[in-house]
Amino acid sequence: MNDMRDVFFDEILNIMRSDEHVIFLFADMGAMGLGQIRKEFPLRCVNVGIAEQNMANVAAGIALAGKKVIIYSIAAFATLRCYEQIKISICGMGLPVAIVGMGPGISYAADGPTHHATCDVASLGALSGMSILSPCDESSVRAAIREAYASTGPVYVRLDKGAYPALYSCNTLASMTQICTGTQALIVASGVLTHEALRAAKHLEQNGISVGVVDVFRIKPFDYVALKNMSTGVKLIVSIEEHVAWGGMSVQVAQALKNTGIYHEAMTLCEEQPIGYGDRAWYWRRYEIDAAAITKRILSLISG
Amino acid sequence: MENKNSTETCSRIRRMIMDTIVAAGKGHIGGSLSAVEILVALYHGGIVHIDAKKPQYPLRDRFIMSKGHACEVLYAVLADYGFFSVAELLHLGRDGSMLGGHPDRHIPGVEADTGSLGNGLGIGAGLAFAAKLDRNTWRTFVLLGDGECYEGSVWEAMMFAAHHSLYNLVVIIDRNQLCVLDRTEDCNRLDPLDDKLRAFGWDVVTVNGHNIAELSQALSSARSRSSGKPFAVIANTVKGKGISFMENDVRWHHGVPKGELLEKAYCELDYRGVL
What we know:
The complex is a heterodimer of chains A (304) and B (275). With 304 residues, chain A is of the alpha/beta class. Chain A is built from twelve helices and twelve strands. Chain A has helices spanning 4-18, 34-40, 52-64, 75-81, 83-91, 120-125, 138-150, 193-206, 224-230, 249-257, 280-286, 291-303; strands spanning 22-26, 45-47, 68-74, 97-102, 131-133, 155-159, 176-180, 185-189, 211-216, 218-220, 236-244, 263-269. A seven-stranded mixed β-sheet of chain A has the order 2-1-3-4-6-5-10, with helices on both faces. In chain A, strands 7-9-8-11-12 form a five-stranded mixed β-sheet, with helices on both faces. In chain A, α3 packs parallel to α5. The model of chain A has no long low-confidence stretch (mean pLDDT 96). Chain B is an alpha/beta fold and 275 residues long. Chain B has one domain: Thiamin diphosphate (ThDP)-binding fold, Pyr/PP domains (Rossmann fold, 3-Layer(aba) Sandwich), CATH 3.40.50.970. Chain B has a five-stranded parallel β-sheet with strand order 1-2-3-5-4, with helices on both faces. In chain B, β2, α6 (152-163) and β3 (169-175) form a beta-alpha-beta unit. Chain B starts with a helix and ends in a 7-residue tail after the last helix. The relative contact order of chain B is 0.17. Chain A binds chain B through residues 23, 43-44, 46, 48-49, 51, 53-54, 56-67, 84-85, 88-89, 92-93, and chain B through 58, 62, 104-105, 111-113, 115-116, 118-119, 121-131, 133-134, 140, 152-153, 156-157, 159-160, 164.
């Protein structure tokens, strides 16, 4: 298993080798894999410094000249620090710029709330023409970058760090995929939380409860039809996300399930600013979105 | 550009601005009137290499009106230059009209959506970066307002442009000394603006922004420089230029004169109104 950041940089390298009209901008933020891109493409791979607003505007200008641009920074800064530039200069003009946010949700854990991106789906999802992709393993990272590269409009990729078990084996993905099936409930997850959902499904199976897991790769546009189809025959759906309740993926899940009679439980972060510091698992426990909390919630909902 | 012609063109543009604003019942008149000579020098003076019949020609020069609120002068110049019908000006802001209160790329001749201040220079820097990378010879021109220079993103872009030696990027600053409510020097001091730009790594010249000959000379020199630096022209202007009671008066950042004032404005423009 490779760190998803290195997979991301490897895929960018592949794309830049094959297309001389791809420009990579980053705001003084990288990982091991970035070195090779900088070495091979010193003119097309540019550190703009810690200046996200300018990075987004420059990306828009380069895209106006007919090129594809990928911009990269910590998710919290790649989204909100330059939100207006994304809204007006990129989305307003419908330009093919991929915004890759490193560390969505509480990925940066103990670095604290300045580095948390817990409302990125709500904020970027509200922008015109913006797609949101949320990969969870090596193959889906490659799929996300390929899709962002092929897109004619803006795309936001929630890129996480760390290595995770492979759930996919191809580089082109459907909007969402049923990773495992179950008859009593369905967990709808995305990104690294899909792995927590799978752990919860396993615990529940050991308790004699059959639970399926859906991984959402494309949060926007949300595939309401696909989720509705996958929900057929299930009475309970639990959506889980490392995002505040307001405007997150769970809102889209609820929309998909409207008039189906299926009970939907949304497990999200609360609205408050996190207080205290710890690792990511600590935050997950605190906000009750880890495998244990999902297991407990589903057990209580099913057993009443 | 020949003097008589340019004077006539500027007078015509001022009348068109006035008509546009009177028809719309609103508009940013002060900052439009201060930028008339700048835009006329750029377009009618042949500095910006562009063909109104081929607005999407890939190798055209780009002009970005970063101070997008002063769209009335841009629309008047674009219409006068042939990008769209002059009659369109009288429909600004009306239901379903092509023209709104800030420029967007759906309008022929408009290169970028602007209106939220501080973003045009970064976009222009991106265009210039791409042109330089491809070894294309087209240039990018950006007009900034001086009040706009309070935005931090302007200075992020200034740094970027100088660091990347964007010799093909020209910024003109409409230095009319007034922001919405105050004189810039009473709000947050901008001066010495030229020294600031030089310290950021730009070539800088300061001109009378209402003198077409000075503007043309400075803007023409943009192509012949060999320093490799981006180029800034600080154009000293008068907000509300051409209508005496508006000149240097913050009350005319936006607004429409009515009654006797409108008569006086038309009289000074030597014009009776309506295109």
